[in-house]
Specification:
It is built from ten helices and 15 strands. By secondary structure, it is α+β, with helices and mostly antiparallel strands.
């Protein structure tokens, strides 16, 4: 038996298993919400026309677990809840602090922040540089999808019909991470572009590098060309300036409000700002 509350196509299951069964039964015309901040945008812009809504707000998915360099965050954890934890990876903490507005912080969730089209999704950009995995559960069990392989296009994701995001996991937090973004206004307004960096150093050389960029395309992406420049080299100004020139390599920019030349220069500058702590 499904243990749910529902009225006129709105459902609030109490168990994750019930939510999964509901999503499987109701099909692709279902909109899954938690805080609802993304849902408002999608509905107002007529990007979705759901026949049913499943709310996850009653599920026990609001938590942050930190064990050594391993982090797991429940899908319905809000930005406000994240900010209460001082042992988060630096990039994720900086991304959370960059989200302004008390109402938005109280409503926006980690799982929901993985889903919006660019330029939104600051937490997703930060998490991608941490090699985060999206934890999915469906009728066939659980699976982990690297966040870098989660996106398939505008509002298209590597998620099956009956699956729900229940958590985000970082298996090993890098030794250094940082997040920087640029907005039209200092304390508000949508993100124009963002960059996150995750680095591990070994004997004054960069052993592992992860660079993610948000705002330029329909979803965050890994700047693999910049990562190749960084890996194996000393963390010097010359290294970082070389990598900065490759942050937008091979990318087809879809941002419609600013010129492509401006955005390429912007993400290069944001990358340099993100690695300033390493250079110091």
């Amino acid at each position: 038996m499904l243990s749910i509350e529902g009225d006129a196509g709105f459902y609030r299951p109490k168990k994750l298993s019930d939510a999964i069964r509901l999503k499987k039964i109701l099909g692709d015309k279902t909109l899954v919400i938690a805080g609802g901040t993304l849902a408002v945008q999608l509905l107002n812009k007529y990007l979705v026309e759901p026949e049913a809504i499943i709310s996850l707000e009653d599920l026990p998915l609001s938590y942050v677990k930190v064990a050594g360099r391993r982090v797991e965050i429940g899908a319905t954890t809000t930005v406000a809840s994240l900010l209460k934890h001082r042992d988060l990876p630096q990039a994720l903490a900086e991304a959370a602090r960059s989200i302004h507005g008390l109402a938005l912080r109280e409503a926006a969730t980690v799982g929901g922040n993985l889903m919006p089209p660019a330029p939104a999704g600051d937490l997703a950009t930060a998490l991608m540089a941490l090699d985060a995995e999206v934890m999915l559960r469906g009728s066939r069990g659980a699976r982990a999808v690297p966040l870098s392989k989660f996106y398939r296009g505008a509002l298209q994701y590597n998620i099956r019909r009956d699956e729900l995001i229940y958590a985000v996991r970082v298996r090993r937090v890098p030794g250094f991470s940082a997040f920087r973004k640029f907005t039209a206004y200092r304390y508000s307004g949508p993100t124009i572009a963002s960059v996150a960096v995750g680095l591990d150093l070994d004997r004054r050389r960069i052993r592992r590098a992860a660079v993610s960029v948000g705002g330029l395309t329909t979803h965050p992406y890994r700047a693999t060309a910049a990562e190749r420049v960084l890996t194996g080299r000393e963390p010097s100004r010359e290294t970082f300036e070389d990598a900065a020139q490759r942050v937008a390599d091979g990318v087809s920019i879809t941002h419609g409000l600013y010129s492509e030349a401006y955005l390429r220069r912007l993400v290069s500058a944001l990358f340099v700002r993100a690695v300033e702590k390493v250079m110091s």
